[in-house]
C-alpha cells in the first residue's frame, strides 16, 4: 500500500478511517492480486487489454497469493475498466457469483476519486477484538470505532439532555437489541454519596473525553 502513489491511493489515504477500514485487495498489473501488507519492488507495467487477458487466462495463479475474505459485504471495485474487468472475474471465481452489493467506480478520474471517498466515508464502524460473550451468546468486544475498553468517555444521554454530562469508564462493547452498546462504569451520587454504578448505554451517547484513563 505504501508503494503506490497514484491519485486513487491518495484519495484512499485521505478518507479511510482506522475504526472503519475495509478489507483491501490490490490488483497489480505485474503481480495480480496482492495484500496491502505485501512487500514488492517498484515496477512499471500498465494494465492494458492484453495484460488483462493474460491475467484472466491464468486467473487462479494470479489470485492465489491474496488473502480473500471468507464472507463479503459491501464491495467497491475501484480502478480503470481493465482492472475492473479482472476484478469482476476474480470475484466470480472466488465466490461463485458476483456479490449483490458490488459497486464500481465510473467516469473520469476525478469522479472516481469522489466515488471512492464517498464509499469510505459511508463505511460504519466495526466491532474489534472479541474478548468474551454474554450468557445468551452475544459476543463481547474490546473496541468499536473510537471507543475502547479501559478508556474514559463523556456520557451525555440524548433522550435526557437536561442531565449533566458525566465521565464513564468503558469496560466492553457489544451489539445490543438497540444497536452498538457499551458496558460502562459511571459515577453516580446516591443519597449524597458518590458511587460507581454499572450501566449499559448506547455508544451514540458516548463522546471523546480529554480525561486520562487511570
Characterize the structure shown:
24% of the residues lie in helices and 31% in strands. Strands 11-10-9-8-12 form a five-stranded antiparallel beta sheet, with no helix packed on it. It has a three-stranded antiparallel beta sheet with strand order 5-6-7, with no helix packed on it. The chain has helices at 7-15, 49-57, 59-63, 81-95, 109-121; strands spanning 26-28, 32-34, 75-77, 102-104, 127-133, 139-144, 147-148, 152-155, 166-176, 179-190, 193-202, 206-208. It is elongated. The protein has five helices and twelve strands. It has two domains: 7-121, no CATH class; 127-208, SH3 type barrels, CATH 2.30.30. It is of the alpha+beta class and 214 residues long. The model has no long low-confidence stretch (mean pLDDT 92).
Short description:
The protein is an alpha+beta fold. The chain has helices spanning 7-15, 49-57, 59-63, 81-95, 109-121, and strands at residues 26-28, 32-34, 75-77, 102-104, 127-133, 139-144, 147-148, 152-155, 166-176, 179-190, 193-202, 206-208. 24% of the residues lie in helices and 31% in strands.
N-to-C series of helices and strands:
HEEHHEHEHEEEEEEEE
Shape: elongated
Q: Structural class of the helices, strands and pairings?
A: alpha+beta
Strands ordered across the widest β-sheet: 11-10-9-8-12
**Topology, number of strands:** 12
Total domain modules:
2
Helix content: 10-25%
- Relative strand content: 25-35%
- How much is the average pLDDT? 92
Annotation field: number of helices: 5
Distance from N terminus to C terminus (CA atoms, Å) equals: 36 Å
Work out the radius of gyration.
Answer: 23 Å
Amino acid at each position: 500500500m505504501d508503494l503506490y502513489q497514484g491519485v486513487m491511493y491518495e484519495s484512499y489515504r485521505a478518507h479511510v478511517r482506522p475504526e472503519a477500514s475495509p478489507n483491501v485487495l490490490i490488483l497489480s498489473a505485474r503481480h495480480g492480486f496482492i495484500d496491502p501488507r505485501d512487500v514488492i519492488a517498484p515496477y512499471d507495467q500498465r494494465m492494458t487489454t492484453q495484460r488483462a487477458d493474460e491475467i484472466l487466462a491464468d486467473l487462479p495463479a494470479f489470485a492465489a497469493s491474496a488473502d480473500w475474505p471468507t464472507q463479503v459485504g459491501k464491495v467497491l471495485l475501484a480502478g480503470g475498466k481493465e482492472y475492473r474487468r479482472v476484478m469482476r472475474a476474480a470475484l466470480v471465481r472466488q465466490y461463485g457469483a458476483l456479490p449483490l452489493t458490488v459497486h464500481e467506480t465510473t467516469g473520469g478520474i476525478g469522479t472516481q476519486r469522489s466515488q471512492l471517498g464517498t464509499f469510505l466515508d459511508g463505511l460504519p464502524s466495526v466491532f474489534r477484538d472479541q474478548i468474551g460473550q454474554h450468557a445468551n451468546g452475544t459476543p463481547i468486544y474490546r473496541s468499536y470505532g473510537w471507543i475502547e475498553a479501559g478508556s474514559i468517555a463523556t456520557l451525555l444521554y440524548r433522550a435526557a439532555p437536561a442531565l449533566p454530562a458525566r465521565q464513564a469508564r468503558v469496560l466492553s462493547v457489544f451489539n445490543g437489541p438497540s444497536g452498538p452498546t457499551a458496558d460502562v462504569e459511571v459515577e453516580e451520587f446516591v443519597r449524597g454519596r458518590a458511587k460507581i454504578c454499572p450501566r449499559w448505554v448506547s455508544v451514540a451517547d458516548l463522546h471523546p473525553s480529554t480525561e486520562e484513563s487511570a
